[in-house]
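Look over this record before class:
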Amino acid sequence: MTSTSTLDRPVRRESGGAAGAAEKTARRKALLHWIAVHSLGIAAALFFVLPFVFVFLTSLMSDQQALTRDLTPNTWHWDNYVRVFETPGFLDWWKNSLLYAGLGTALVVVSSVPVAYALAKFRFRGRHLSLLLVISMMMLPPQVIIIPMYLFWAKELDLSGTLWPLIVPMAFGDAFAIFLLRQFLLTIPNEYIEAARIDGCGELRTLLKVVLPMAKPGIAAVALFQFFYCWNDYFGPQIYTSENPAAHTLSYGLESFKGAHHTDWNLTMAATVLVMAPVILVFFFAQKAFVEGVTLTGVKG
């Protein structure tokens, strides 16, 4: 019995090794098959990700190494971000951008939801004409009305050099936000609204207690679109705040930062990362609601 079991051991080891090799080969083939199937997606992902990686790695290089053939920093200079924050006015640009994007987003959502609810759920004469007017406003470029608007805010109200000419109009709604919310609210069954009315709820209470909880994905999508627009807006701050550096936003202030540090590409890249970081973080944490809201807006027309 002892001799037989001893003879069996090499055979078992050989079979175990063959099974392990076969498993490794199968895994390798499965990986190659996955790469082949998703090759276009991988190429597209690299196309979008690699510029961000380049900007981030350059922001951590020294002045001498930036924009050389080196792909990674020889020494990691995290103090570049400290130097950017120490630039006069940079913190003010941050505060202005947060004020513009945060307050502007809140005003657009608050003012657009009731209008979208009325266009989606109310039946009144002129409803289709009102929707047509909203859509026509989406087709009107802001550059067309910028001169009379600037004369109104600068000459009549004396608010040039501030962000208020950009923030205050958002309290009257946004055509794209109204249209997107209206499309989403069409997906909410009317039975819920009718049940709330039968229970004695008025239109305002129905909107607040029934419609808004069900419309969170659509509201999140509108809020993210508006936040991204305000955070990246360059045209508006250039028109209204160019004469007052204290009112610059990050998108407009970054241009003057590049002009002052046109040879310090590591600092320019560090400032660019700080401008992009909030947008990337907001989208990363809210992407589920954003995708769901954008997807559901196309269910009904």
About this structure: The radius of gyration is 28 Å. The chain has two domains: 2-81, 88-296. Residues 2-37 form the longest helix (36 residues). The chain has 14 helices and no strands.
